[in-house]
TrEMBL record:
Gene3D superfamilies: Hexapeptide repeat proteins, serine acetyltransferase, domain 1
CDD domains named among the record's database cross-references: LbH_SAT
Catalysed reaction equations from the record: L-serine + acetyl-CoA = O-acetyl-L-serine + CoA
Enzyme Commission code: 2.3.1.30
Classification via Pfam families: Hexapep
Keyword Amino-acid biosynthesis applies: yes
Source organism per UniProt: Candidatus Muproteobacteria bacterium RBG_16_65_34
GO terms of molecular function: serine O-acetyltransferase activity
Protein name in UniProt: serine O-acetyltransferase
Positions of region (Disordered): 243-264
Enzyme class: transferase
Biological processes annotated in GO: cysteine biosynthetic process from serine
Family, per entry: Belongs to the transferase hexapeptide repeat family.
GO CC terms, sorted: cytoplasm
Length: 264
């Protein structure tokens, strides 16, 4: 028992940098208190002492602001940070190492006595104010962004944002990231879509444009080199972008380009 308690508190330390001591976590964290009372209430529910289980869950709600139905199934090392306004429905199922923040709802979309609440797999993080509704399945290691509304199942490892929730494309790393940053710098664009945060559709579209421009740039260099080897002199270098005046300048002199010269 004490080993399990120590393991749980250590998991809290890993997810909350404000936690300082085991005593502080056990005595001042409402999420910890709500979970402890739920463990007891859930056992009463399984023993068919359902009124007593519901009364205990009501007491937990009054003390912590967190409402967990005693029939909900919760795995190991579950942590509710801050906690106020969290609601977990009767048929909800939560795996190991999941984290919920304040204002989260795991709600139902049916009045039928059936599976009507979400199932969270292992290591799922649900941001503040998010709503996950219906008998959907949230895969392992998924991330649900703050204030998102999720009504469809989420694959493992995905990040979901928005209303309704949508899976966003992961931010690229390594060579792909450097390539986009170089192209954005070349055209004088501050690529806000290249942050570590989830991308919105506009940022994703801009990233795709940067990728396409990079490929066009490469093709132009190859074509220019081939024409030069064939003895055809033509300047195919892309002009630099004058950010201040939003006009194209000459690649070498910075002068404004006039109309293209005709063939003599």
């Amino acid at each position: 028992m004490f080993q399990s308690l120590r393991e749980y508190v250590q998991s809290v330390f890993q997810r909350d940098p404000a936690a300082r001591t085991m005593f502080e976590v056990l005595t001042t964290y409402p999420g910890v208190h709500a979970l402890a009372l739920h463990r007891v209430a859930h056992r009463f529910w399984r023993w068919r002492l359902k009124w007593l289980a519901r009364w205990l869950s009501l007491l937990a709600r009054w003390l912590t602001g967190i409402e967990i139905h005693p029939a909900a199934k919760i795995g190991k090392r579950f942590f509710i940070d801050h906690g106020m306004g969290v609601v977990i429905g009767e048929t909800a199922e939560i795996g190991d190492d999941c984290t919920l923040y304040h204002g989260v709802t795991l709600g139902g979309t049916s009045w039928q006595k059936e599976k009507r609440h979400p199932t969270l797999a292992n290591n799922v993080v649900v941001g503040a104010g998010a709503k996950i509704l219906g008998p959907v399945h949230i895969g392992d290691n998924a991330r649900i962004g703050s204030n998102s509304v999720v009504v469809k199942s989420v694959p493992p490892g995905a990040t979901v944002v928005g209303i309704p929730g949508r899976v966003v494309t992961p931010t690229p790393t390594g060579a792909k990231m450097l390539q986009r940053q170089a192209m954005a710098k070349k055209i004088g664009f501050d690529a806000y879509g290249l942050t570590q945060q989830g991308q919105d559709p506009i940022a994703h579209a801009i990233d795709c444009m940067l990728d396409h421009m990079h490929l066009v740039d490469q093709k132009m260099k190859i074509l220019s080199s081939a024409l030069k080897q064939a003895g055809i002199k033509v300047n195919l270098e892309l002009p630099e972008l004058d950010v201040e005046t939003l006009e194209n300048g000459n690649p070498t002199t910075g002068d404004k380009q006039g109309p293209p010269e005709g063939n003599s």
